[in-house]
Amino acid sequence: MNRFKTKLFKYAKKLSIIALLAITFAVICNSIIIYNAEGKTFSKTENIPKNKVGLVLGAGKYLKNGRINLYYKYRIDATVKLYKTGKIDFVLASGDNGIEAYDEPTTFKEDLIARGIPEHKIFLDYAGFRTLDSVIRAKEIFSLTQCTIISQKFHNERAIYLAKKNGINAIAFNAKDITGRYGLKTNLREYLAKTKAVLDVVFNVQPKFLGKKIEIK
Description:
By secondary structure, the chain is α/β, with parallel strands linked by helices.
């Protein structure tokens, strides 16, 4: 019995050490990303420099319960605000279109047009399955070496880090964030996403698809 307790204690100790190392690594990764985004995210249009293209990052329009996804709504609001104040000339809507029935970029386009942005000013990236894909494809497919990223601040920080590591000079405009239980769950997931972003850079992870060049003009 004593031998079993000793083994159990050693096993628990090893697990505790592994967990502590994992938490420490995650804290370091998140700190690196937040540091890299310092001074590059803006919440007011009067403070943000102008860029030719605004890269709005994808999100589904509706939640599973059928309600509007506020992350989506606020990204639309932010994009329209940037365009109408002359801070961007074009919009690149990047999102998931992995199956025919799910098309984030087209949904963004329809709502942006409904809000007054001309159709010829909107370009779509149908293979923005992840933030990493959206950022790298912005450079490799749409030839962007600088842009304004549009999403919530926590997401913008990660996107700016990925942009910098892939040769894009990016700033970001912060869409309104969400508080409460749903916002808390998203921010907890983001903590892990930031950690994965650092690992993606370390291991030089590439987008799922590339393809032919598209000129934004």
